[in-house]
Amino acid sequence: MNYVTVDAYRIGEFPFWFHQTWTTSLQLCLSLVILFRAVGLATFAALAIIVLTVLCNAPLAKLQHLYQTKLMMAQDERLKACGEALVNMKVLKLYAWEKHFRTVIEKLREVEYTSLRAVQLRKAYNGVLFWSSPVLVSAATFGACYFLKVPLHANNVFTFVATLRLVQEPVRSIPDVIGVVIQAKVAFARIVRFLEAPELQNVQVHGTVAYVSQTAWIQTGSIQCSLVKDLELLPYGDRTEIGERGVNLSGGQKQRIQLARALYQDADIYLLDDPFSAVDAHTATSLFNEYVMEALARKTVFLVTHQVDFLPAFDAVLVDNPNISTLKLIGVYLLIGVGSTVFLLSRGISTVILNMQSSRSLFSQLLISLFRAPMSFYDSTPLGRILSRVSSDLSIVDLDVPFCFIFTVGATSNAYANLGVLAVITWQVLFVSIPMVYLAIRLQKYYFSSAKEFMRINGTTKSYVANHLAESLAGAITIRAFRQEERFFAKNLDLIDKNASPFFHSFTANEWLIQRLETMSAAVLASAALCMVLLPPGTFSSVSIQNQCTLANYIISVERLNQYMHIPSEAPEVIEDNRPPPSWPSVGKVEICDLKIRYRPEAPLVLKGISCTFQGGHKIGIVGRTGSGKTTLIGALFRLVEPAVGKIIVDGIDITKIGLHDLRSRFGIIPQDPTLFNGTVRYNLDPLAQHTDQEIWEVLGKCQLREVVQEKEEGLDSLVVEDGSNWSMGQRQLFCLGRALLRRSRVLVLDEATASIDNATDLILQKTIRTEFADCTVITVAHRIPTVMDCTMVLAIKDGQLVEYDEPMQLMKREDSLFGQLVKEYWSHSQSSESQ
């Protein structure tokens, strides 16, 4: 992500600043010629100081490159951790791990601060070097004139000072130029390394391919295969916005959209990676018969599945076993130069110190705000928009804002100080200066009205690029399988062009302003010859206005960060006056009273007045068709969404009256989408380091993962890559079981936990739960009917309403029972599969 949001931005800045390198050099050469005509051989003293300045900068430029590279690497690590946490924020909240992951990111940020501090100190050094050089050049030249007996008359002194002022601002801009060039060089090198990385090899396939992944990949947009009923329930049918990654859809609906997408492809070969595990038995049978057996009857189909009931229908099965005297005046001038240098040095160091403090405070507040944001924020905000804040905007605040601010203050103070001195000595200058300042301010305001919007649009369009990139990376396999790379490349380029447009117009607007300021200054000076003598060039500096405008543009990034620092937060993590007892919940009794849930104030109700009681120690099964509201009920139990009406009471305590951390840390859950984090086996089971290795090995044994981990050379330190992609879906689910075993909660929730594992592993998981959680309240949401058949009670939900709640056998006896209907559909599906 850093390649797109930061490195590409630095390369985009480079062409503008590149021209400063040769224009500054040309201005210096022309100035030296003019100086030689004015002060003769004393010019060589000025040249010596200039050369010495460049030589003093050369070794530190190499160090700047080194630390800039380290800084970008540290940013990569921090952004990777941020992305992983933000993508899996729901899991972090369910496990009450937000504080731990926030601490991990803050530690990575501290590593980044080390490189950032080094980069800023060297940038401050450059600022001192090049801002003090004009004064030191003047002092050295006057000193050389004294010793060489070059007369210092008003005409040549004025020529010298005026010429020096012409190049003063270009010289002072050299630190910015050096910084941009180094940043662009580092960015180029990083992108070249990335582009030269080994790529995937080609596989020869005869015919077109359609692919359906095990984990549904859904893009931001609307729906346009067994979705007829769902489309009727959705408020806008197939044009209903489904949110980023399909957050507004259930797991089964996501899978069916995937299947429909593949069917529209009309390919020759279909690769189906266990797509039926996320739906109930009836829907799975319907999909298999209508999709695989009918729609794909004349197609080549590769189906990866743990549902062996479907296997008889296939042709082949593959089983896988993973005045004063002149001298005195020169001395005073030199003293002023030294004092100026000391001031610049202290200013630079103070800037670095204050910037580090403000940057640390800003990031900390931003991180807390993001981690405390409710799930509704993540459901409605594209991930790319959040990542652009913690990458490109934060990079601008870290690297660009501080020195742009002090250079702006310096240039503006210098301009108005000169104006004030001249107003005291030669008051006539006010007749020219006051109108000029007034016109410049009016012009600046006119520019600001557009420039700020350009930067805001640039930030917004950049988030679209980041969001599209994140979606494309998540669905890379699907995109390649459908041979849609060119379409996604074209879409990405289109988004980049839309992002480049405000970026380009921001620079052109800046040039528009500078041109008019320079023209205005030249016109005033040309029309007032007398004031031209009294008013030295540079008294009113266009560079001062330019710096102010650049700073205002950079402040947009601060504004964007500030927006995310004030996100409405969830309920408090801990309410000190109302903390539950350490042993809570001790019984595990759950009372649901007239519970009504909606995801947004204006949205329709998802749960419509559910009331029931789960007795402590009972095993509760929750069933219903896809999209009926089962997962929403679990979300309400963990307060991922707050009740619109009603309440949930656990062991006599209303869960809305206690802190979220106290609530979520006391419950155990095996979520629908098993999530592993980048790290080790030990870290994924016990990220808070609360358990011994012996306890972890015991849990691995109970989860049937002990042998798998022991076979790996590193044991508990075995690598788990991002998203756990080096472990199978079933193994990831068993990791989640291990987390629940380590936590030992009195209330355990299984949210369709067995959907992605084979029947044998399902039996192991169920046996482990019955043994290890015999006295606990176990709430199971499941599509597989056998999973809930041995439950104490079964709760059936339809369209967000409680249809029935009773013992499984009692429900089976009812003629109009929804549960009985689901059981019949399941066994009918199983028997028809066996007969095939």
Automatic annotation (TrEMBL):
EC number(s) recorded for this UniProt protein: 7.6.2.2
Chief place where the protein resides: membrane
Subcellular location: Membrane
Entries under InterPro entries matching the protein: AAA+_ATPase, ABC1_TM_dom, ABC1_TM_sf, ABC_transporter-like_ATP-bd, ABC_transporter-like_CS, ABC_transporter_C-like, ABCC_6TM_D1, ABCC_6TM_D2
GO MF annotation terms: ABC-type xenobiotic transporter activity; ATP binding; ATP hydrolysis activity
Any single Pfam family the record assigns to this protein: ABC_membrane
CDD domains, sorted: ABC_6TM_ABCC_D1 (cd18579), ABC_6TM_ABCC_D2 (cd18580), ABCC_MRP_domain2 (cd03244)
Signal sequence residues: none
Domain ABC transmembrane type-1: 1-183, 310-535
Residue ranges crossing the lipid bilayer per the database entry: 34-60, 330-349, 415-441
Membrane topology term: Multi-pass membrane protein
Any one annotated GO CC term: membrane
Keyword terms, alphabetized: ATP-binding, Membrane, Nucleotide-binding, Translocase, Transmembrane, Transmembrane helix, Transport
Residue span(s) of domain ABC transporter: 116-347, 590-824
UniProt similarity note: Belongs to the ABC transporter superfamily. ABCC family. Conjugate transporter (TC 3.A.1.208) subfamily.
Protein known as: ABC-type xenobiotic transporter
Organism: Linum tenue
